Amino acid sequence: MRVVQVEPREDFKIWVRFDEGTSGTIDLQDLAGRGVFGAWKDRHVFESVHVNDAGAVEWPSDVDLCPDSLYLRLTGKQAEDLFPALRPVRSDA
């Protein structure tokens, strides 16, 4: 899964479109100001968001977010939905 387009929005939100067609707005307020995301306090830094060659969302200073985690945030799906191998193996006793 790759992000093919990203646009900054107000209040630390981004609009993204994935290569399989899913698109929408993702709220990143919970990250803003924490750790490496402290750089977003400068609005110009946040607005410089772009898609890197790997299809991840990236800001200056190599701050990036994994496309899979963004897809999960956007869709509300669980990691097991994207990666079935993560589902626990049931043992029938």
Q: What topology emerges from the helices and strands here?
A:
Blueprint: E1 3-9, E2 13-18, E3 23-27, H1 43-47, E4 50-51, E5 57-59, E6 63-65, H2 67-75, H3 79-82
How would you describe this structure to a colleague?
By secondary structure, the protein is of the alpha+beta class. It is 19% helix and 28% strand. The strands form two sheets. It has a three-stranded antiparallel β-sheet, covered by helices on one side. A three-stranded antiparallel β-sheet has the order 4-5-6. The protein has three helices and six strands. The model has no long low-confidence stretch (mean pLDDT 91).
Q: What is the number of E strands?
A: 6
What is the approximate shape?
elongated
Cα distance spanning the termini: 37 Å
Helix fraction, binned, reads: 10-25%
SSE order, as H and E?
EEEHEEEHH
Secondary-structure content class: alpha+beta
* Named CATH topology: NE0471 N-terminal domain-like
CATH superfamily caption: NE0471-like N-terminal domain
Sheet-strand content, in percent, reads: 25-35%
CATH architecture term: 2-Layer Sandwich
How many domain units?
Answer: 1
Identify the CATH class: Alpha Beta
Number of helices: 3
Note the main sheet: 3 strands, antiparallel
Rounded to the nearest angstrom, the radius of gyration is 15 Å
Report the uncertain regions: none
Report the mean per-residue pLDDT as an integer: 91
